Amino acid sequence: MIFETILRIALGILMLSILANMYRVVKGPSGADRVQALDSIGINLIASIAAYSVLFHTQAFFDLILLIGILSFIGTIAFARFIERGVVIERKR
């Protein structure tokens, strides 16, 4: 009973953190701040899904956690490369 309450409080805090990061994505002063906020949103989503998985006593969401982790990593790398070079994929002709 108390464990479920703690998980629900943690989920609420994670949702507030996602909302704060969404504000940083919209109002960020630079592109690097926006990329960092998007990466933080990905991490918070992974933690939220893991908490839901523990709360519902299921392992069905583990594939989703892995998928979001991979996509978040690839997205962060692509945004960082775009900020650094101005293009994600270089084509040599």
Kindly describe this structure.
The protein has 93 residues and is mainly alpha-helical. Helices cover 81% and strands 0% of the residues. It has helices at residues 2-27, 31-55, 62-85. α1 (2-27) packs antiparallel against α2 (31-55) and α2 runs antiparallel to α3 (62-85). It is elongated, with a radius of gyration of 16 Å. The model has no long low-confidence stretch (mean pLDDT 91). It is a multi-pass membrane protein.
SSE arrangement:
Layout: H1 2-27, H2 31-55, H3 62-85
Helix pairs in contact: 1-2, 2-3
Largest sheet: none
Give the helix/strand class. Answer: mainly alpha
The succession of helices and strands, N to C, reads HHH
Helical content stands at: over 70%
- Report the portion of residues in β strands: under 5%
Total strands: the figure is: 0
Choose one word for the global shape.
Answer: elongated
Mean pLDDT: 91
Oligomer: single chain
Low-confidence stretches: none
Instruction: Give the helix tally.
Output: 3
Distance between the termini: 64 Å
Output the keywords.
single chain, 93 residues, mainly alpha, 3 helices, elongated
The gist of it:
By secondary structure, the protein is an all-alpha fold. It has three helices and no strands. The mean pLDDT is 91.
